[in-house]
Amino acid sequence: xxxxxxxxxxxxxxxxxxxxxxxxxxxxxxxxxxxxxxxxxxxxxxxxxxxxxxxxxxxxxxxxxxxxxxxxxxxxxxxxxxxxxxxxxxxxxxxxxxxxxxxxxxxxxxxxxxxxxxxxxxxxxxxxxxxxxxxxxxxxxxxxxxxxxxxxxxxxxxxxxxxxxxxxxxxxxxxxxxxxxxxxxxxxxxxxxxxxxxxxxxxxxxxxxxxxxxxxxxxxxxxxxxxxxxxxxxxxxxxxxxxxxxxxxxxxxxxxxxxxxxxxxxxxxxxxxxxxxxxxxxxxxxxxxxxxxxxxxxxxxxxxxxxxxxxxxxxxxxxxxxxxxxxxxxxxxxxxxxxxxxxxxxxxxxxxxxxxxxxxxxxxxxxxxxxxxxxxxxxxxxxxxxxxxxxxxxxxx
Length: 397
Ligand code: HEM
Hints:
The chain is mainly alpha-helical. The protein has 13 helices and seven strands.
């Protein structure tokens, strides 16, 4: 019932390529066809190539951590590169080193757009359209960054298309080929290259900082309760007998799964999801919701409701173990309904494999130089991030 995200606003239209991306697009036939196509592409890639792509990035991350040789480092950038490489490999068959200028340009541009669009200057423009008639440096920068983003993505997609063989197992390959098959919706709206372009932006924005922030939170919480880390390691060691895990091993690794679920509960990295709009008069829990009301789902609130969770603010993965009293059915870190996170399956495989690989090979410890444990309160923005901290990744014997 609550389908539309709020994109009638002018700045939203600019950022979303005229409403042609999924996260900000309105609930139209065109939007549904677009989402269906991207969903099919992700589904196919989850079955065909995703596992291998993530394994490769997890092993690369392992090498990066080994190379630090137990020095105290902030791992946030390495996590961002690992998560981003999963998406860029799937989207245009490319992976980057963190020092690559191309990668830095892509991320600085996407991060600037998210930050500028979330700024109060831009909200003021949407609330008081007359302000658009006056010079506004923030708005001018937003326009410039959107143009830069579009030029970068276009170049990547053109490079990809100019390769002789377009691989249908890669997302973009599937999307491009899918355009021929699904081009027209029931009502005749056309899906074009612009939709592939905007889907790539959606996947890059939706799939990079979220996964990276989640990994960074997990290491921070593990420093606070080292025994959880020891329990996960012990489980990995005994169940897997030395080999690296596959996603299909998850049911045999309840301790690891409980850690992942507890982190998704405690720090849903998109704490307020994406604004939705009621497409018709409705009600929630007995409250009348008129058509067009914008609804902001408070996922963080739902995950900390004392009526549902005991000690909601405590880090207690064991609550999800048998007899622990909590059910994963009450979790909603990926939102819900028609706007459910498109990358939910991709994210779940990533969180599982990255965490398993990291905890199998490293013990994360507080550096002696750090006086105190990481601050767990977080920095609020579109993505909920942990404050910067340093950690030592000590290789397991
Ligand atoms: C820890 C990892 C992640 C979390 C917690 C997360 C969470 C979310 C949430 C809460 C939403 C909004 C849902 C709503 O409004 O009801 C969302 C939307 C979205 N996410 Fe994720 N996400 C994650 C990873 C990913 C990944 C890896 C991708 C891409 C492969 C992705 C792509 C998207 C897209 C495209 C949307 C917009 C969907 C729409 O508006 O229809 N996300 N995500």
